[in-house]
Design goal:
Length: about 475
């Protein structure tokens, strides 16, 4: 309820239309209404900041997974890239990214809000405006850091930082604008939504995971495999399985902020949505991890913790887009299929000798594509109404499983948006990587790769008395 919302009253046969604020003032409750509004604002701001904290912890999770997956001689290289993702990414998002993503503009991009200037006086800016900026920065940082592990151990730092610049300014922000603003051409909040429904990407399966996974695949393919990566007689060692597992658990922990926090507020039906999102997130991640270990055992006769870690992440990615609009059984099925998509997608990349160190492409891109389709299949109308309410024009959000006609429109919108995200991301990032490769600025030389980036670029080895390669 907003204090400017109107209420109709009939007194002695006379109909009057008053705002809640005017009604409260006439009844002597003006101060109480103000206190309620202030409390709601405080709750929503706190909820966003809490979600921000959880999502930012994911940066530590990514760092631990990547450090655990590379050889010890490249530890500092991973650390510096993940630190700079946050530092440089936040500066760029401050100056440009926020404006392009969430500023007023056209259906493609925003035009105002540079350096977080909203056009209002400081006293007129609501706390949730600043909280939303902080929350969205963590999404941008997450999309950026997906690539770090994929191209680890052989990519020049300059090339990676240049990629970060493009992602934080002109890749992630427009895609976020398309799907999460009232003006965006694919947004369900648009007064004239795509195919009368728009794209349901509640927590960024397209805007974050598919976008980042596409960049990861392009980078891993163009930079080429590490020396000896596909020499089966001597597999490359990974540094630390403990780091990989702890990093995965930190990501799972942070994912609750990613998905549940995407409600942006609490109160009414949206509170139920936030709770249901937590259930869907848990089930999909857990089922996917469980399915992956079964695949690993029956097909490879192993119980590899690294495979389980990526299986969990694949389930979490798969459910992110539709987490608010599906029922628990839908999350269960999504997790099972997500595990298969990741597992066999990883095998395909390996057969093509594409060296993705942390399997970011299979986890984020392939599982993200499945998640985009799955949302259109399993979208439940009641859950859709709880999650979106009056903020959207569409009254029927039933997926393909429940309503063939309406679900078909959702699927069409999702496939079109998926194609747009893939095409736009490749259009920007592919020329960047190709030019860097042509100028020999993409990959380090063979001597540096053999010695390790820590010794060559980062002031020495990461650990005292380090002897392992």
């Amino acid at each position: 309820m907003n204090e400017n919302d109107e209420v109709k009253l009939t007194i002695n046969g006379n109909e009057q239309v008053l705002s809640w604020a005017d009604l409260a003032e006439k009844l002597g409750y003006k101060e109480l209404l103000t206190q309620v509004a202030d409390s709601a604002e405080a709750i929503n701001t706190s909820w966003l900041l809490f979600g921000t904290t959880l999502v930012f912890i994911m940066q530590a999770g990514f760092t631990m997974i990547e450090v655990g997956s590379v050889r010890i001689k490249n530890t500092k290289s991973i650390l510096i890239k993940n630190l700079l993702d946050c530092c440089i990414g936040s500066v760029l998002f401050y100056f440009y990214g926020w404006a392009f993503a969430f500023g007023d503009g056209n259906s493609f991009i925003g035009f105002n809000g540079f350096a977080i200037k909203s056009g209002l006086n400081e006293t007129e800016i609501e706390p949730t405006y600043y909280a939303a900026w902080t929350f969205q920065f963590t999404f941008c940082a997450t999309a950026s850091t997906i690539v770090s592990g994929a191209v680890a151990e052989r990519t020049q730092l300059f090339a990676y930082l240049l990629y970060t610049f493009f992602l934080a300014t002109i890749i992630y922000p427009p895609v976020a604008h398309w799907v999460w603003t009232e003006q965006g051409w694919a947004s369900p909040f648009n007064p004239d939504p795509l195919f009368d429904i728009g794209v349901i990407d509640y927590a960024g399966v397209n805007a974050v995971h598919i976008l980042g996974g596409t960049c990861a695949l392009m980078g891993a393919f163009l930079v080429g495999p590490r020396q000896g990566r596909f020499d089966k007689s001597k597999p490359l060692a990974k540094q630390n399985a403990v780091f990989q597992c702890l990093g995965t658990l930190m990501l799972w922990f942070g994912w609750y902020g990613f998905n549940c926090g995407s409600t942006h507020r609490l109160g009414g039906a949206i509170t139920k949505s936030a709770a249901k999102i937590g259930v869907a997130t848990t089930i999909s991640g857990a089922v996917s991890g469980s399915t992956t270990i079964l695949l690993n055992f029956f097909l490879d006769r192993k119980f590899d913790p690294a495979i389980v870690c990526n299986g969990i992440l694949a389930g979490l990615v798969s459910v992110s887009g539709g987490c608010a609009v599906i029922l628990p059984y839908g999350a269960f099925i999504i997790g099972i299929v997500g595990a298969h998509v990741y597992y066999f997608g990883s095998k395909v990349l390996e057969s093509l000798e594409i060296d993705d160190v942390v399997d970011a492409s299979a986890v984020h891109l392939f599982s993200g594509i499945w998640g985009t389709i799955a949302c259109a299949v399993f979208c439940d109308n009641a859950s859709f109404s709880d999650a979106y309410g009056d903020a959207v024009k569409t009254e029927n959000g039933a997926g393909l499983l429940y309503d063939g006609v309406k679900g078909g429109k959702i699927l069409a919108a999702h496939l079109l948006f998926l194609l747009a995200v893939l095409s736009y991301t490749c259009l920007i990032v592919l020329p960047v990587f190709l030019v860097l490769k042509k100028l020999r600025l993409l990959r380090i030389n063979n001597i540096e790769e053999s010695k390790g980036q820590d010794k060559v670029m980062h002031g020495g080895v990461a650990y005292e008395n380090q002897v392992a390669a």
